[in-house]
Write a structure and sequence with these properties.
By secondary structure, the protein is α+β, with helices and mostly antiparallel strands. The chain contains five helices and twelve strands. Strand 3 and strand 4 form a beta hairpin.
């Protein structure tokens, strides 16, 4: 009675989980006849059928006799079933097995057959095997309800009426097995089933699946977002012709402001551009004075550009240390008094 109650509970739980799996994933799952997820259209939900043979182990009890069966082992033929794969993990099937006839020395013979319904849970094979046989083999568990059908094959030779131990009309059965998946939706199963204390079997069956076909599962194509080509700043670089100061001061001339306004117009679309301003002087005064003068002039130009919206600016100053012409002539000294601009970022919006 306890076994019946426990088995009934297990059967209900397995049936409930199967229905939940069907509701959550009614049409698409991995085809268990193959290892890789399906991309060609076959899915694993669908009907299947199996047939096979094996050995049954029968041990009926006769109440009014002490004799034991001549042999517990018998030929199981046939073992047939039809089922439905709900998804990759769960299946349900109807089965029938003819277990043979248990015979006693007195001539008594009792026929055994089993019929019922089972729920199957397939254990996913996540182990990494190099061997093809192991990669395509997975385990499964079975539990369900059924009935052992007994009939009298022959009476005792002495004519004494049989008193066979009464068996429960409905039995809870348990089982476990291995399934090897082959091509063309064909599998080989090896399983052990226990129906009751007097009935169990070991079977080998061939399974053919009739999986429902659906359209191939294709990956979703995401159109790439076009990448906008970077815009390059074409503001003048190098020596800024026309950027001059009032003699011995850091005050910009009006012409210098006009030149800097033109640069600001060119850089207006690119406020993140990084610039470098370098100021130089001639050698008319002391080196210390010239260094301070070039510093003030560099800051003046940088500040003017910042006021126009360009904030990423480095201000450098070199005094008279980097002449490009001789300071011995007025022309050379005029060229040495200069301001240079350099764009440090490759792209204007860097």
């Amino acid at each position: 009675m306890i076994k019946l109650l426990i088995g009934s509970l297990f059967s209900f739980v397995l049936l409930f989980l199967s229905c939940m799996a069907l509701a959550e994933n009614p049409s698409q799952c991995t085809d268990r006849s193959r290892i890789d997820p399906v991309v060609g259209g076959t899915v694993c939900n669908g009907f299947y059928a199996g047939i096979g043979t094996g050995l049954s182990f029968l041990e009926p009890v006769i109440i009014n006799s002490d004799e034991s069966v001549e042999s517990k082992m018998h030929l199981l033929l046939p073992n047939i079933y039809v089922g439905y794969d709900i998804n990759q993990s769960f299946a349900a099937q109807l089965y029938y097995s003819r277990q043979g006839t248990a015979k006693f020395p007195s001539g008594i013979g009792i026929n055994y057959s089993n019929v019922g319904i089972s729920g199957l849970y397939h254990v996913e094979n996540n182990l990494a095997f190099d061997n093809e046989l192991m990669k395509n083999t997975s385990a499964y568990l079975k539990v369900g309800m059924g009935s052992i059908i007994n009939s009298i094959a022959s009476e005792a030779d002495d004519g004494i009426p049989l008193q066979v131990n009464a068996l429960t009309k409905m039995q809870v059965h348990f089982g476990l097995g291995l399934e090897y998946k082959m091509a063309n939706d064909i599998s080989i199963r090896a399983e052990y089933m226990s129906y009751d204390q007097d009935s169990s079997e070991l079977a080998i069956t061939v399974v053919k699946r009739f999986a429902r076909k659906v359209a191939p599962i294709l990956p979703k194509v995401v159109k790439p977002t076009p990448i906008k080509a970077p815009e390059i700043c074409y503001a003048p670089t190098g020596i800024l012709e026309g950027v001059e100061f009032i003699s011995n001061s850091d005050e910009l001339t009006q012409d210098a402001k006009t030149v800097l306004d033109g640069i600001l117009n060119q850089l207006a679309p690119f406020p993140k551009v990084k610039l470098e301003i370098r100021a130089h002087t001639d050698s008319e005064n002391t080196p210390e004075y010239n260094m301070q003068l070039s510093q003030r002039r560099s800051e003046t130009v940088s500040q003017y550009l910042r006021s126009g919206g360009i904030n990423n600016i480095d201000s450098l100053y070199f005094g008279e240390t980097q002449p490009i012409e001789s300071n011995d002539t007025e022309t050379g000294r005029a060229k040495n008094r200069r301001v240079e601009l350099e764009i440090l970022s490759n792209e204007c919006d860097f």
